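Researcher: Let's do a round of design. I'm pasting the structure tokens now; please hold your answer until I've finished.
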């Protein structure tokens, strides 16, 4: 993939240096204020990060820089995100647990430390969640399903890609939003590449593969480049992806599947604040350490009013040459967690060499090996959620 003709990085950085930083008197490029410049597919964007007290003074600078980007050759969409680096809070974010009295310990164990020495993290009022009444479903999208977990490496992307492909096999009009801004994997797992185009409203047109409309930051940023972005830049990028041209009034999208990154941070908060979801699928592996993080993800979505549709247990077992199931990561953990949450266990996905090979080759398993146990599990999952 290459940048469109005319979108020359050196020329754009030189043009941005003509915009003067009011504090240093230098151009923005020379002053080091052009952060995370992205030139891809007719889109130019960067982050202008200043001190919190200077935000108002730099609004005009942001507008001027955005105009410079818009006038550059090969640029169709220009975006400058004005943000500030948060300063350390003036009061401590830690609190002392209330005293519970002295403890002498039992059975030779060391005494419990005095309560005054135990620290707890205080609640951040700005991070408290509640049902998001202003969230909206994307235009011409009937249903939105997010695939989430609090822990990386449990197979959210594998589940998301194969769920989307399975829905397409069932005849649904399907979209896949790869919301992992820092580690996009949908382009590789679906074997699709290229530069997205724009519609008349300057919305991104998703790429298509295996009957799925797919949009990912991997199509927009420069290939092989690490996205070293703070939260506001990542959230802005996600909003652009969310607002893609998913469907039309005549042909609306039946289901939009969202592959979330691990954790409960900026990306997840942007999603729940802006996007109305019909439900969330929690992915976990059987072992307790993964279930702990899955619980955190479930709690976050429950606080925002997004219903938990159920739990998917990935890497549930491995079948040896005799067909015997070997529970490499334990057994029954996700089922127990689903019962605790009061939701169904939607699927148990076995470990298969064919599944790994399909992901690496960019061919969803439900297409390349539809009769395999894992593919059948994904198809059953799709029928449940369709």
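Researcher: That's everything. Go ahead.
Model: Designed sequence:
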């Amino acid at each position: 993939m290459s940048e469109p003709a005319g979108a020359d990085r050196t020329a754009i950085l030189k043009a941005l240096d003509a915009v003067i930083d009011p504090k240093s008197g230098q151009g923005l490029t020379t002053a080091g204020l052009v952060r995370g410049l992205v030139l891809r597919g007719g889109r130019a964007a960067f982050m202008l990060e200043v001190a919190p007290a200077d935000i108002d003074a730099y609004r005009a600078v942001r507008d001027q820089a955005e105009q410079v980007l818009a006038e550059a050759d090969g640029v169709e969409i220009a975006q400058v995100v004005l943000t500030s680096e948060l300063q350390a809070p003036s009061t401590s974010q830690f609190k002392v647990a209330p005293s519970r009295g002295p403890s002498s310990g039992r059975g030779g164990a060391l005494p419990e430390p005095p309560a005054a020495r135990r620290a707890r993290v205080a609640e951040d009022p700005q991070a408290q969640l509640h049902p998001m009444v202003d969230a909206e479903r994307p235009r011409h999208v009937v249903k939105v399903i997010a695939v989430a977990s609090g822990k990386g490496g449990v197979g959210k992307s594998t589940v998301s890609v194969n769920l989307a492909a399975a829905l397409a096999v069932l005849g649904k009009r399907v979209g896949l939003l790869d919301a992992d801004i820092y580690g996009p994997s949908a382009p590789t797992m679906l074997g699709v590449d290229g530069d997205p185009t724009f519609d008349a409203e300057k919305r991104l047109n998703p790429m298509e593969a295996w009957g799925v409309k797919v949009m990912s930051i991997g199509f927009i940023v420069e290939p092989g480049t690490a996205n070293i972005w703070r939260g506001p830049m990542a959230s802005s990028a996600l909003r652009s992806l969310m607002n893609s041209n998913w469907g039309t009034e005549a042909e609306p999208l039946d289901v939009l599947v969202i592959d979330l990154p691990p954790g409960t941070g900026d990306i997840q908060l942007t999603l729940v604040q802006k996007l109305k979801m019909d439900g969330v699928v929690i992915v976990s592996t059987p072992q307790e350490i993964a279930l702990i993080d899955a619980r955190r993800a479930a709690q976050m979505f429950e606080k925002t009013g997004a219903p938990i549709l159920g739990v998917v247990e990935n890497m549930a077992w491995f079948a040896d040459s005799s067909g015997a199931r070997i529970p490499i990561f334990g057994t029954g953990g996700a089922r127990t967690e689903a019962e605790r949450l009061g939701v169904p266990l939607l699927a148990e996905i076995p470990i298969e060499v064919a599944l790994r090979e399909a992901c690496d080759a960019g061919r969803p398993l439900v297409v390349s090996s539809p009769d395999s146990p894992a593919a059948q599990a994904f198809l059953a999952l799709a029928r449940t959620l369709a």
